[in-house]
């Protein structure tokens, strides 16, 4: 399905068609712009067909190029020419095959003898070319299956790795497109079940008592003896048959079959620039941001973006990019489904309880930022009130999925056109009536509120089913709320970096804060969506709104920029930055709760075809030994530092194992799903999947540093984002390195828990980072210069934020 057109009907069935018939001539639009009815209809039909065929031919050509990569069409022409030259020189490189092909071709008479020879040569060249491409794909897939380079110490490269790297460069071709490597990526391997169980027992040993660990080990032995071999056999079979042995089950059972609310439980948010706002005009910021997002979609559809390369040499899977736009998670009674459209030429906009359809294209192509600003300004200036039940309708998308699925059938029956316009939009835009972001008066509190409103909103101003919602605040601040099932954070983060850099540095704003260019007076006003909703669904909307507000009020968000040091200091310590932070988080959490807990850190498995994520269990025995030493006053700094390095090395080993397909959790998850399909009872697997993650962590990397000039414009970098806690008594912690000298932390917990406090953990994280830094000689100055009482640290943090806003 392509563009979705909303019609404004107030009654179902024939009455809606009658209303459309009456308003047909006055409301007729095409791609968001008025149709000149005086123009010849045949001309319009021809132009429409040409535009459609142009898109299809472009996609076909791109698919062809990615299918033959690393070869190119010119290589076929070269091969055909070489065969023709050899034939002219009375040489037969086909060893008689071309003569046999000529015999199979129709006999068109003697005058076409030469044509038959050319066709035979072309067919032989095509077959040989296809065989060579297949050989290249197999060779590249075998090369990309090597992960020895990942397991080597940082900065060191063995001779086999150097040889491997040279071969990869030879076989990889030049100028790859986004999906060029998809046919060459290896499949994710199924680890040895014995290794997985051993690693699992090792990971839970620090958090279990002796008695509980002995019982778990007994269950593990029984599992290996009774059920493991059968379940493993099925996973191996699936790994040969399916693109990925775990990812489709992960999407199905972790996301789509979950019946909980998407709000807080599934979605996550991404922030704007922390200290700068390019324009205070809400409509202008929305115009540039929407235009930048659509430019990204354009590049995506044309595959003009290069694939992401790990360490500049290893391609990552690009499959998740396919569903960024035109995607909606449709609720079902038992399971949801992901609906992805090939194209969509409008966005759905929410403002003060009203829904609008804004076309994004005209017959000449994508609307300019100034034209989009004009459309959004019309919406902001529209004084019409929300219709009955319309204002809080979106709260249903925050309701439990089964409830929303049932109510949606009534909505679809009575307001199909409006629902189609929202669900068929490229993405959802929420024009908030309140300001967002940092304020000079109370920077710390305003920053926490900024995170909270991005994560949860007011319960009824986000369409949580859409792949993402662009949030534009009244003061021009931006934010993104992302639904999680279709892809993971690095994908949306990649898009968000492009959006911020493009709308600020390339599109820019005029001196008065408006988008550059001139308004278009011929554009029709945005189309107001009409929801003919029955009174019977009002109790459901009210119930969903109460549930959303309760869930929102229960979330405790805390965001703070740690400005004492950043990646440059950690680099001078010759340590990986992620492991440094993870060990500090272990120390902070132990001080916060007085005990160790299972820790979830997400790592990507996109080294493999359709890979998503794996879990790094960061609470290791080595990490616990380090934390205990830090809390032992008899331990010296050199002793603590030695244990810290051992813990970091262990964490790096776990991270690399997870990325290379040798993690624990996805394998155990797939074994558990297989056992459920086979009706095999496994007490061990049941216990594994009943565990609670009281500390869930993730790093948000800045992937496209070339888009930002962090030296000349250090404040123009994304400040990351956050997510809700995975456990009612746990924390969700994400962090991002902003430039070289700052780390921003996003912490979330639930206020209903008596065991957690996001601000308290934030203080422990700051203290822990300074304490760890003090183990190094370069960190002693940091501790003396910045450590102090809790109040002094808080005043320093607020003073830092205020000074950045003033700048």
Overall pLDDT metric: 85
3D shape: globular
What share of the residues does DSSP label as strand, in percent? 5-15%
Query: Which class best fits the helix and strand makeup?
Result: alpha+beta
Termini Cα gap: 49 Å
What's the oligomerization state? single chain
Q: Please tell me the CATH architecture of the largest domain by its name.
A: 2-Layer Sandwich
How many helical elements?
28
Global Rg: 29 Å
Number of domains: 3
Strand arrangement, major sheet: 15-9-8-12-13-14-3-20
What characterizes the major β-sheet?
A: 8 strands, mixed
**CATH topological fold name of the largest domain:** Chloramphenicol Acetyltransferase
Helix share of residues?
40-55%
CATH superfamily of the largest domain: Choline/Carnitine o-acyltransferase, domain 2
Give the number of DSSP strands: 22
Topology (elements, then pairings):
Blueprint lengths: L13 H9 L1 H4 L1 E2 L2 E2 L6 H28 L4 H16 L8 H8 L8 H32 L3 H4 L7 H13 L21 H12 L5 H17 L1 H14 L5 H10 L11 E4 L10 H20 L7 E2 L3 E2 L11 E4 L6 E4 L5 E6 L2 E6 L1 E2 L2 E2 L2 H13 L19 H14 L1 H8 L4 E4 L11 H13 L12 E5 L5 E5 L6 H19 L19 E2 L9 H16 L1 E8 L4 H6 L4 H17 L5 E6 L8 E5 L3 H10 L6 H23 L5 H13 L5 H6 L6 E5 L21 E3 L7 E7 L5 E8 L7 H16 L6 H7 L3 H17 L1
Parallel strand pairs: 8-12, 12-13, 17-19, 19-21
Antiparallel strand pairs: 1-2, 3-14, 3-20, 4-5, 6-7, 8-9, 9-15, 10-11, 13-14, 16-22, 17-18, 21-22
Helix pairs in contact: 4-6, 5-6, 6-8, 9-10, 11-24, 13-14, 13-18, 15-16, 21-22, 21-23, 21-26, 22-23
């Amino acid at each position: 399905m392509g563009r979705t057109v909303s019609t404004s009907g107030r009654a179902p069935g024939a009455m809606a068609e009658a209303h459309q018939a009456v308003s047909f001539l006055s409301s007729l639009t095409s791609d968001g712009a008025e149709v000149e009815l005086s123009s010849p209809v045949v001309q319009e039909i021809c132009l429409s067909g040409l535009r459609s065929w142009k898109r299809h031919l472009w996609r076909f050509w791109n698919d062809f190029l990615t299918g033959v990569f690393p070869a190119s069409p010119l290589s076929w022409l070269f091969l055909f020419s070489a065969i023709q030259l050899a034939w002219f020189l009375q040489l037969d490189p086909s060893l008689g095959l071309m003569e046999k092909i000529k015999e199979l071709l129709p006999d068109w008479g003697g005058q076409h003898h030469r044509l038959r020879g050319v066709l035979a040569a072309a067919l032989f060249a095509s077959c040989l070319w296809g065989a060579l491409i297949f050989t290249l794909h197999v060779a590249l897939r075998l090369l990309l299956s090597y992960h020895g380079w990942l397991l080597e110490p940082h900065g060191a490269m063995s001779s086999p790795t150097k040889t491997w790297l040279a071969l990869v460069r030879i076989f990889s071709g030049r100028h790859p497109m986004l999906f060029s490597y998809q046919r060459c990526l290896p499949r994710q391997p199924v680890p040895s079940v014995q290794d997985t169980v051993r690693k699992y027992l090792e990971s839970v040993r620090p958090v279990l008592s002796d008695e509980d660990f002995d019982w778990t080990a007994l269950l593990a032995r029984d599992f290996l003896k009774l059920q493991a071999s059968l379940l493993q056999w099925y996973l191996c079979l699936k790994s040969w048959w399916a693109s990925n042995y775990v990812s489709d089950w992960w999407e199905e059972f972790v996301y789509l079959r979950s019946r909980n609310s998407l709000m807080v439980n599934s979605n996550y948010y991404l922030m704007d620039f922390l200290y700068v706002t390019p324009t205070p005009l809400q409509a202008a910021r929305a115009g540039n941001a929407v235009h930048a997002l659509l430019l990204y979609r354009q590049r995506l559809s044309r595959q003009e973006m290069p694939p992401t390369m790990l360490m500049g040499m290893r391609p990552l899977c690009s499959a998740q990019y396919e569903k960024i736009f035109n995607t909606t998670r449709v609720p079902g009674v038992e399971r949801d489904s992901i609906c992805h459209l090939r194209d969509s030429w409008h966005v759905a906009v929410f403002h003060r309880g009203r829904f609008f359809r804004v076309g994004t294209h005209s017959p000449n192509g994508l609307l300019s930022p100034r034209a989009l600003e004009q459309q959004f300004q019309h919406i902001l200036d529209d004084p019409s009130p929300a219709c009955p039940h319309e204002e809080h309708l979106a709260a249903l998308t925050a309701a439990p999925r089964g409830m929303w699925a049932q109510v949606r059938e009534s909505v679809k029956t009575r307001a199909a056109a409006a629902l189609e316009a929202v669900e068929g939009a490229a993405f959802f835009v929420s024009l908030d009536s309140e300001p967002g972001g940092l304020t000079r008066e109370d920077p710390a509190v305003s920053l926490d509120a900024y995170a909270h409103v991005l994560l949860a909103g007011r319960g009824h101003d986000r369409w949580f089913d859409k792949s993402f919602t662009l949030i534009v605040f009244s003061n021009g601040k931006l934010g993104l709320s992302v639904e999680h099932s279709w892809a993971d954070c690095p994908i949306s983060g990649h898009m968000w970096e492009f959006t911020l850099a493009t709308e600020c540095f390339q599109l820019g704003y005029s001196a008065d804060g408006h988008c550059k260019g001139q308004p278009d007076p011929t554009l029709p006003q945005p189309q107001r969506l009409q929801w003919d909703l029955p009174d019977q669904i009002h109790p459901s909307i009210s119930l969903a709104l109460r549930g959303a507000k309760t869930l929102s009020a229960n979330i405790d968000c805390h965001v703070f920029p740690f400005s004492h040091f950043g990646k440059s200091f950690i680099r001078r310590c010759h340590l990986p930055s992620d492991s440094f932070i993870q060990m500090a988080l272990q120390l902070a959490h132990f001080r916060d709760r007085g005990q160790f807990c299972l820790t979830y850190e997400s790592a990507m498995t996109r080294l493999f075809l359709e890979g998503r994520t794996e879990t790094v269990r960061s609470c290791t025995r080595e990490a616990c030994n380090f934390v205990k030493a830090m809390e032992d006053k008899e331990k010296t700094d050199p002793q603590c530092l030695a244990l810290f390095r051992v813990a970091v090395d262990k964490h790096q080993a776990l991270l690399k194992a997870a990325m290379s397909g040798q993690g624990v959790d996805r394998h155990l998850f797939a074994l558990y799903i297989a056992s459920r399909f086979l009706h095999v009872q496994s007490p061990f697997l049941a216990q594994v999947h009943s565990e609670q993650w009281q500390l869930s962590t993730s790093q948000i990397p800045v992937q496209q540093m070339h888009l930002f000039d962090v030296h000349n414009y250090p404040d123009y970098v994304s400040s990351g984002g956050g997510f809700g806690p995975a456990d009612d008594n746990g924390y969700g912690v994400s962090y991002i390195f902003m430039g070289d000298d700052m780390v921003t932390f996003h912490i979330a917990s639930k206020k209903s828990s008596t065991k957690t406090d996001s601000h308290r953990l934030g203080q422990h994280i700051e203290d822990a980072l300074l304490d760890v830094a003090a183990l190094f000689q370069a960190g002693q100055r940091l501790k003396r210069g910045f450590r102090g009482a809790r109040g002094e640290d808080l005043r320093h943090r607020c003073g830092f934020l205020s000074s950045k806003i003033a700048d």
